[in-house]
Amino acid sequence: MTKGQTITVPTEGFSDIVNITEQVQTTVTQSKIRNGIVSITAIGSTASITTIEFEPALVLDMQELLNTLVPETIKSRHSETWGDDNGFSHMRATLMGPGITIPIEHGKLLTGTWQQIVVIDHDNRPRNRQIRIQVLG
Known about the structure:
Elements: E1 2-11, E2 16-19, H1 21-31, E3 36-43, E4 47-52, H2 56-69, H3 77-82, H4 87-96, E5 99-105, E6 108-109, E7 116-121, E8 127-136
Antiparallel strand pairs: 1-8, 2-7, 3-5, 3-8, 4-7, 5-6
């Protein structure tokens, strides 16, 4: 059986990190699927889904790391071609990937105590991100 929904998550861009664990668990609960997997995917080429311990210091550390690996000021042919200055956001999203899969046991996400599911919006402006949550079991 497969059930799912698409949620909208407002973000600030520039690798803004938003905790979506509660929305994912709500979708799992509403699906009534007790054992299986949930796939969480960012729709678009400048956002990523991952897990992190969602606490302010680590969020800042992650944002700094992303800016070190792929600086906002990096020269990109994409930005030169399209004039939108967001080539860095495409590169960050490509390195991280658009989605993840989490196991479900007894109707609950199988995550660690401090592990939360997050969307990271790498784009250079605020967005309303579409996130697909698909439950299979």
